[in-house]
C-alpha cells in the first residue's frame, strides 16, 4: 500500500514525489518510458528561476536523482487504469496492480502530429519530433521545422549549427515563441522563414525527399527539397485511460483548478495534463508541489481522521 502513486515522471510528477517523500509518505512513481518528460529534449533551459542556464537533460536528471535519493520508488510501467474505491485507489499497470491512498495524474502531453499521409511511416526516415535526438543525422543537409512556438524556434537554432539550411514553416505571419530567440533566428544566415504556410504533403516513399507547402493567403503550393522534417507543433494530452475516474475537457486535459484537485477525492492532477493557461517548467514544478501537499493533507486530515474514528 502506497500513500501516493504518481502517474508520470516528468517535471510535475518528480516534483510531486520530492514533496511527498519529504512529508514522510511512501511514494511510487510510475513511468511508461524514460523519466524527464518533454524537457529532456530541450537543449537549453534559461527560464527556470534560480538556474541561469542548464540543459533539459541535466535538469531532468537532477530532478530524478533528487526524488530517488530522498526515497521515492520508480517503476517503469504503463498505468492502464485507475479505480476509485473511495478511501482506496487501485492502479492497474501493464505489469502489476498497486493500491494507494491517493493518486496524482501527471501524464504531461505528447507531441502533436500533423496527420499527413505517410507521416507515421516515415518516422525515423526523415520525419522527427525531436531535433536534439535526431538532428545529427542531418549534418550538412537541408531540413524543415514546422511550428512557430519556442520548441520549433529552439529546434531550428539547434539544427542550424549542423545543417546546410533550415526552413521554418509557420502557419501564420507572427511567431508564438519568445522575442529573444526570434531575434537570434533572424540573425542566422541559414534559416529561412516560410510564413503563412502549412505542410500538406511529404514527398518520398521510403524516406523524406521534400515537402509540399501551401500558402494560406493566396492558396499557392510549392515543393521544398529537404531530407528531414522536424514537427514541433505543440503537444496534446493522453488521459483517456483515466476518464472513468476524472473529468476531461473537450481537448482531453484533466479538469482541475490551481489546487490540483480533481472531482474524485484523493485523486489529484499536476502539470501539462491539467486544464490551465500556462504550461511551463515552473508551473509543472509548482503543480507537483501543490498536488503532493494536497495529497498529504487529504491523507493526514481526511483518511487518518476516519481511521481514528473507527
Ligand atoms: P506551442 O507554444 O503550443 O506552439 C505550437 C506551434 O505550432 C504554434 O506556433 C502553432 O501555431 C503551431 N501549430 C499548432 N498546431 C499546428 C498544426 N496543426 N499545423 C501547423 N502548425 C501548428 O508549443 P511548443 O513550442 O511545443 O511549446 C509548448 C510550451 O513549452 C510553451 O509554453 C513554450 O513556451 C514552452 N517551451 C519552453 C521552452 C524553454 O523555455 N526553453 C522550450 C520549449 C518550449 P500558432 O502559433 O498559429 O498557434
Overview of this protein structure:
It is built from six helices and 17 strands. Strands 1, 2, 3, 4, 5, 6 and 17 form a seven-stranded mixed β-sheet that branches. Strands 8-15-9-10-11 form a five-stranded parallel β-sheet, with helices on one face. A three-stranded antiparallel β-sheet has the order 12-13-14, with no helix packed on it. The mean pLDDT is 95. Helix content is 25%, strand content 25%. By secondary structure, it is an alpha/beta fold. Helix 1 packs parallel to helix 2 (56-70) and helix 1 (11-22) packs across helix 6. NADP nicotinamide-adenine-dinucleotide phosphate is lined by residues 42, 45, 47, 112, 114, 146-152, 154, 171-172, 176, 198, 232-235, 279-280.
Alpha-carbon distance between the termini? Answer: 19 Å
Percentage of residues assigned to helices: 25-40%
What is the H-and-E element order? Answer: EHEHEEEEEEHEHEHEEEEEEEH
Instruction: Characterize the overall form.
Output: elongated
Which helices and strands occur, and which strands form pairs?
Elements: E1 2-7, H1 11-22, E2 27-30, H2 56-70, E3 73-75, E4 79-85, E5 88-93, E6 97-105, E7 110-111, E8 127-128, H3 131-134, E9 142-146, H4 150-160, E10 165-169, H5 179-186, E11 191-194, E12 197-203, E13 210-215, E14 221-224, E15 228-231, E16 235-236, E17 267-269, H6 281-309
Parallel strand pairs: 1-2, 1-6, 2-3, 6-17, 8-15, 9-10, 9-15, 10-11
Antiparallel strand pairs: 4-5, 5-6, 7-16, 12-13, 13-14
The structure holds NADP nicotinamide-adenine-dinucleotide phosphate.
